[in-house]
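Why Restriction system protein Mrr-like N-terminal domain-containing protein? Reviewers of the renewal asked for a concrete example.
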Amino acid sequence: MNFQVTVLKILVSYPDGFAVMPDLKRDLAILATSGRDWGERTKRSAARMPDLDIFSQGLVERLNGGWRITEKGRAGLELMEAARPSDVELRSEGPRAESSPAAPRSPLPGSTREG
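Here is what the prediction returned.
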């Protein structure tokens, strides 16, 4: 499980994006023990932003005994969730060495990768 992505997902689900620490810790514990699917999902999202640091990048702020997601944090989370896996692969691999274009990697119409 990627802690930082999980924090963003939890905070975005609260009114005004704010959660006090006991609630945040409870939700983190629930998700940490919810099974392999959650862990894999957050790792995929984190791979889309490899240098993710929720505090230094201003995505989450500490406030009144809790944490709050910022507008920048909401936008970052949307980008992580909207990125196509093929876009991520291209970014992480860098330019391709072969001269012929790769076959398209998009899913078939009507299918999803999250399943």
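Confidence is low (pLDDT under 50) at residues 86-115. This is the kind of structural detail the renewal will allow us to pursue systematically.
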